[in-house]
Every structure is written in C-alpha cells, then in structure tokens.
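Morning F.,

Quick status update on the modeling queue. The single chain you submitted on Monday has been processed. Sequence for confirmation:
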Amino acid sequence: MAGTTVADDGLVERAFSRAAATLGVEPGGDAHASMLAYVRATMGESKITVFRSLFGDEQRAQRANAEFERAYGELVAAGEVAPLPGARETIERLRSEGRKVVLTTGFARVTQDAILAALGWRDLADLTLCPSDAGRGRPYPDMVLTALLRTRTDSVRQIAVVGDTAYDMICGRRAGAGVVAGVLTGAHDDAALRAAGATHVLGSVAELPYTLGSPGGVPTAGSGGS
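Structure tokens below.
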C-alpha cells in the first residue's frame, strides 16, 4: 500500500524515529543513522521482522513495533496520508473489468485498517491482507498465495504483484506470479526493482491496466508496499 497506492511521504521513517527514541536511540547519532538506513533498505518487509533484526531480543522488538504502530497511527489520524494519483481509479477500473484486487502491507492489521479508514477505502478492494493474516510477511510468498486462495484464482500465473520495493518483487517471484511489476512512486529505484526480479517497471500504479491488457489474462492484481 504505502508507496504503491498510498503516498507515504516519509511517514515510515518518522514513525520509526519516534519508536527508536523510546528505546534510547535518539536521532542524530550513529546508531540511529545505521538503523534508519536498514529501515530504508528493508521497506516492504514485515515491520516486526525489521525490528527483530534491529533490536535483537523479542521483548525490545515487540516494544519497538508497538511504538512504531502507535506513532504511525497518530500520523494517519492527523491526516498525513493520501492516495497516490490514480490509485483509486486504477483499483476501480480493474474490478470493473472483472479482476480481483487485493491490498497487502507489511504493517500490522491495526495500522492497515487505520489507513483504509482514513482514505475511505474499506470497501475499495476485494480483500486486504497483512502478515498476520497469511503467516509471514514479505519477502515470503505467503500473502500472495493467501490472496490466490481467498479469491479462488486458478493459477499463480494469473496473478500480478505490484509494489514499490525489492521485497515486493522477491515476494512476487517466489509466489510464481505471471506479472511482477515495480512502481517508481516509493522506496526503491528502477535498478533495485529490476535486480530483485521485476518483470515490468512502471511510473506508477496508474499504468497497471495498460500493462495487463484486456481482461482474461491476469485476473488478480495484488498491490503491495510497506
């Protein structure tokens, strides 16, 4: 979602900085800079997995994750989240063509729901998924395969995975999706997306319908991001 269909505008980094500060990692120091670089590099991965890598023990990771979700929720509640241009229209067009659309995220369900509510998107897609709904988050293929099962899609080759991060591309490739498209509206650039296995790189998600072509080829479109 964030970076693919939703304009994040640095909210992940701001929420991380708030969370890290509660664990004694203040902005401006070497430790904070190193951790922030890791957060940027792993955009798209399940957030609790990121915090486990950064803070080591489970208790600190869970505390950091809870603080991150709280801080991000406050930013969303303050109106600092918006749809990317053409995102809503793209989802509506895909569904009108008979395709199933699933919105996935690396955030926890509470944060995903807050974003959906803030944008008025609760009923926009056929299904929304977060890591806890599927078992594991990106780069594992669990959310894509859960989307296939729940939408009753016939084959993984009929799935299009779309996202702004290398982790989205790896996830799509591991799931066997027929289209794995990167978009340049979020965390990672053209080179990073292609290196991670993108079959297409688009300027934005608004180009997706033209990439898929006429309905019947790829009926399910999954949109990722943070």
